[in-house]
């Protein structure tokens, strides 16, 4: 009888990374069970019927069990409603981060407990390592810097990190493709989705409009002059230049959104630069090193980590003071602070100055 320590539930999306995760773990002597989460039907690009069939076929190739779990109502409540409400408030949400914490890992861990399995694994490019001195399970960047996905896991609590396996964090994306080919996985060349998975490509604005409606308001310049009108602040995000419908002698960018007065504030590019970022809902993923710590921080997934000072404030907030001003600090996005290649803390952006 195989110990629960060698059994692992693998979250399988039908893509190459999760498929190879299952293959690697089986080759390492684990007993994987593939689980596909079917969470959204309307225009889904992450759990479509084809994705489910791809995951099932991979499990057949690997000769491991596969199950599909459907829970669209919970996904609607925890992720889609959050996504819509944040845009309605003039904030830019990060549904992938929220889904990982509230849905994916919770559901996978619940299924693991149900079938007597200790570990859960996914295809994220990140690493989890035990720090003997502090006792923490440290979340670290993946070895492939261009593909590193530690950002998307930077809100997971220690209780989850203790039961997570991330084999993809130790290889590069190029190596993953090569390994998938040599393993005979039919998804070896399958493309990846880069957009919000539950919204059809190019249809985010109409998706939000159906759920929020029109919110007519003013577009205001830096001197307070009304430059135009809009039909919903959810159609804009900080730093946006295109689609403003304004004719000026110089480029204008969205610099702030006011959900109370339904105003869109625009300005020149230099108005987007902020040196200080306040974050809320701070979560430490490593032992605290004091109230002020030198870190490298990123204010969105696609931005590079930049030197900053992390200062803990009251009410579970913190301040990040960057050496170089950051462009388009966006309320609602996750900021992640690193010490070396380790995630030190994370928090949701409240404002920038």
From TrEMBL:
A GO-annotated cellular component: cytoplasm
Binding site for ATP: 11-18, 37, 123
Span list, region Interaction with tRNA: 147-149, 300-301
Interaction with tRNA, annotated site positions: 124, 333
Domain of life: Bacteria
Domain tRNA-specific 2-thiouridylase MnmA-like C-terminal, first and last residues per copy: 275-349
Known function: Catalyzes the 2-thiolation of uridine at the wobble position (U34) of tRNA, leading to the formation of s(2)U34.
Family that this chain belongs to: Belongs to the MnmA/TRMU family.
Protein name as it appears in the record: tRNA-specific 2-thiouridylase MnmA
